[in-house]
Design a protein that fits this description.
The protein has 14 helices and two strands, in the order H-H-H-H-H-H-H-E-E-H-H-H-H-H-H-H. By secondary structure, the protein is an all-alpha fold. Strands 1-2 form a two-stranded antiparallel ribbon. The longest helix has 27 residues. It is globular and about 65 Å long.
Length: 358
Amino acid sequence: MSMTQHAGPAVTTPPAPGPKETDGRTSRRPLALRLLARPEVGVFLGAVAVYVFFLVTAPPVRDGSSMANVLYQSSTIGIMALPVALLMIGGEFDLSAGVAVVTSALTASMLSYQLTMNVWVGVVVALVVSLGIGAFNGWMLVRTGLPSFLVTLGTFLILQGVNLAVTKLVTENVATDDISDMDGFGQARKVFASSFDVGGVQVKITVVWWLVFAALATWVLLRTKYGNWVFAVGGNKESARAVGVPVTFTKISLFMLVGFGAWFVGMHQLFTFNTVQSGEGVGQELIYIAAAVIGGCLLTGGYGSAIGPVFGAFMFGMVQQGIVYAGWNPDWFKAFLGVMLLGAVLINLWVQRTATRR
């Protein structure tokens, strides 16, 4: 009798589990590094640190009305810092932004008062003028190919001279006349310079507008085709043009957005103080640019966010008011700003290298 031996199925031993092979393109960095690579995270941490510092060293900051003042100061900077940041992401910056605010306010005030018109007429004409200044800056830039530094420096000097000369010519003074008793003033004041009560604390309407504009700018940058165009022209305008991005339209429209911001802040100043000093605004453009840089926008363009400048402006407002509440010499304000700016530039440089490292 023969016996047949049946071979059983071969048993295959699976390989021992080991680390997954990855290359530089597919490996994922730690979560902390990926968060720090976001342009707004660094300035958020900085804003928290500045807030905690003054919360400890300046007890009045803990009061609700003091924080309302901080937010108000931040909002007047932040409203302009937003379009300036978008322009910087698009690879340009505007040195005329500070005096353009005063030009807008002067236009609305003198047109309404000297021609005895409803103040809303002056408001609308001022908007057209502000948008026109922005369009001129953008057109000169794309038409001549000159750096935005030179184009907007020229506009800055022109507006500075026109503001003072025209105001003296029309009003025979360096300031405009009081328009608080003119038709439409009360309505315009409600839109641009009113306050509302929150838990017994008066909050300026500019804080609300600031947050609304920040949310809108964030949505535009992250969710719309126009936002992609802004990043593209800031990164490399020739490459952007090669893939069909309307570079000329994008650049001009970004300068016009700065004009819109200048108009809004100018209207706030006019309807808060009822009159405008023609020599104001000089130096404010550096504050707006610094808030955007502290907020994570690179001077080289193509990188940044709309949320970062919100925290950057908050840091400015916090330092400006915190020094007062702490009882320190306010002359130190600019020194604090310089330290923050240099620190932000170094952090942004590190973040940029981290974000591009494989």
